[in-house]
Amino acid sequence: MAKYLREKPSNFKFSLHDAKIIDIDYDYGENRLIFKTQSGFIDIERNEMVDGEIILEGVSWDDSYVYIMEYKNVLTGNVGSFVGEKMYLSNFVDAFYSKFGSFDVMSEYDSYMTYMLSGFLKRGSEELEANIEIFYNGDIIYNVRG
């Protein structure tokens, strides 16, 4: 039996951990998704926040989803019961600005053609948990200001 080791990538320069996404823009013609942050994201090498936006290219709108969980009788993010909704990413993006205040990223995962964010979504005074699953075949671009 042949054994193959899948190595963890070591070339990540930036992390969205602790980033607060305050707006999401899209270009359906170019299949691009743009995350705009309140105070940037982490430059891993320098271990500091940098201001900028994140662009995903080659997004497949038909294969990308958002899962929203509303916890019942337990604090959001803890183990317990919840009710939820799965929606297309395009519907979430269309509703983001009017329905949600922000998305606080707790973790991100980038794999072969799949980019996932998990964190907490603000809806009025409510905290919800959400997972964003993006199927893409392009690049992830970090536009850093300054």
What do you see in this structure?
This protein has 146 residues and is mainly beta. The protein has one domain (15-144). 8% of the residues lie in helices and 53% in strands. It contains 1 helix and 12 strands. It has one helix at residues 89-99; strands spanning 14-15, 20-27, 32-37, 41-43, 48-50, 52-57, 65-71, 82-88, 102-111, 114-123, 126-135, 140-144. It has a 9-stranded antiparallel β-sheet, covered by helices on one side. A 3-stranded antiparallel β-sheet has the order 1-4-5, with no helix packed on it. A hairpin with a 2-residue loop joins strand 9 and strand 10 (114-123). The termini are far apart. The model has no long low-confidence stretch (mean pLDDT 93).
Topology order in helix (H) and strand (E) letters: EEEEEEEEHEEEE
How widely separated are the two ends?
52 Å
The strand line-up of the biggest sheet is 8-7-11-10-9-2-3-6-12
**Helical/strand content category:** mainly beta
Shape: globular
Biggest pleated sheet: 9 strands, antiparallel
What is the count of DSSP helices, taking H or I runs of 4+ residues?
1
Number of domains: 1
- Give the C-alpha Rg: 16 Å
Rounded mean pLDDT score: 93
Q: Count of DSSP E strands?
A: 12
| Uncertain spans | none
Helical proportion? under 10%
